[in-house]
Amino acid sequence: MRQLSVISRRVAAAAVSVVLIGGAAACGPKGSGGDSAGGGADGAPKKGGTLTVLNRAPQKQFDPARLYTSGGGNIPSLVYRTLTTRNRENGAEGTKVVPDLATDTGTPSDDAKTWTYKLKDGLKYEDGTPITSADIKYGVERSFAPELSGGAPYLRDWLIGGDTYQGPYKEKKGLDSIETPDAKTIVFKLKKSEGDFPYFATSTQFAPVPKGKDTGVKYAEHPVSSGPYKVVKNTNDGEQMVLERNPNWSEETDKERHAYPDRIEVKSGLAPAVINQRLSAGQGADAAAVTTDTNLGPAELAQVTGDKKLAARVGTGHFGYTNYLAFNPKSKPFDDPKVREAVAYAVNRTSVVNAAGGSALAEPATTFLPNQKSFGFTPYDPFPAGANGNAAKAKELLKEAGYADGLDITLTHSTAQNFETSPEIATALQAALKEAGIRVKLAGLEENDYDEKTHSVDKQPDLFLAHWGADWPSGGPFLAPIFDGRQIVKDGANFNASRLDDSAVNNEIDEINKVTDHDAAAKRWGALDQRIGAQALTVPLFHPVYKRLVGKDVKNVVISDWTGVLDVSQVAVK
């Protein structure tokens, strides 16, 4: 799989938050699925009106080279089309990859080390000029420019010559590993097999950029649109954005985006409580508003649940994401598998789920892979302790390990109030492990310090709270960064906390990457997850559930399992 740079690994850890700022998920609000709601009396969505997006974080990066978003993001995918895109459907159907600018999801050859794409007919930019394969090649190449860093790092690791290429501003020749034999054909030559290439081809690095209109670091202010909307305003690094229709976008070439509203206004820099209050009240323009980055918290959800009208406007989403306990098996006492297994048996997932906001906001996990078919989810529990833990079994294992009188350990957590790595979760674990004779000292770290230490081989705590989210719905970008020994980084941001470097695991990752049948690959990812899980290198705790309000006049809510939030490209407001 990928061999990420230090900076890229840090970005990968943050990908989940970026994805949710610009992403889509599982099942929509009651009565607001794709077929049941709309903008007219007959229930059919209608074109027209203005959609308002109320967000906490501004869309700071809007250059297609610098975006790190799953499936092309949410707001970005209204402006940038890519070779492939996510299927804009509810639930599991939304985890599929489908053609966008290309006629299909790509033709592999040479054990998936070569991928060929053909472009559709009639593709145009907002100014009416045709989109060509050379524009896509240039768009990919400019993502290598140091001035435009921040995007997903895979191509630097995958493309032949990508590890040393500095982008078209410094190297005019471009990458030989991207070929454009004609205006409608583009071929990518990879160092190694990557069966998931069509999934990554949904990222904005594959958006076409006309070389003659590239303004470098200022391109994000007025990018040339290939999607249904064009940018007419982008101020304060994405804090305020206005999108209007691209007159040269053709629905005939784009079956995924519906583009119902005439205008989309993005307003960021708002507090989460303010966003939810405005969506709840639905006054004026807020009646036709959504958020792409703010969830309902436990207290807010409790209030909303008591109001039937509000409850009907809550969308539920699932994103491929796992919260877990990470061990350092290189240090005592966690170098003993029996101790790690004892901790796994002692965990009370019911109390952990309650600490994360309750069963409406978290689902207990016993597998590292998320509980979705597309990832290869295979139900298993290597240390079955029931919903409330098995203190007796944990004590038995501790005695076998030489700790008949119990054990003293330290659990490191973040002080950030995020209901994931925060004090609430740590305290719930402390109480559960105490029942098994494991005395836990809690060590809280400020968020930046926490990130630095938990991702450092030299400073890594012996036991800490961690989480991981996938860049696309497949087992590869989920298991490889955490368990591929070739991705251990000793002098930078390391995510393989267990330092697992098993040749059999590494080889199986390589073999699965040759498989281009996603369902077949998923089964093998599931089997690998189970094999690794038996080693108790992590203790999966829970998978989050996202709950978000939409305005009372918002129709046609579609939430796929790819990204977990409402897909703006499907929304109607009139």
From TrEMBL:
InterPro entries: Peptide/Ni-bd, SBP_5, SBP_5_dom. Pfam families: SBP_bac_5. CDD domains: PBP2_clavulanate_OppA2. Residues 30-42 have a biased composition (Gly residues). Transmembrane segments: none annotated. PROSITE patterns: PROKAR_LIPOPROTEIN. The keyword Signal applies. Residues 1-26 form the signal peptide. SUPFAM superfamilies: Periplasmic binding protein-like II. Residues 29-49 are annotated as: Disordered. PANTHER family: ABC TRANSPORTER SUBSTRATE-BINDING PROTEIN, PERIPLASMIC BINDING COMPONENT OF ABC TRANSPORTER. This is ABC transporter substrate-binding protein. It comes from Streptomyces hesseae. The lineage of its organism: Bacteria, Bacillati, Actinomycetota, Actinomycetes, Kitasatosporales.
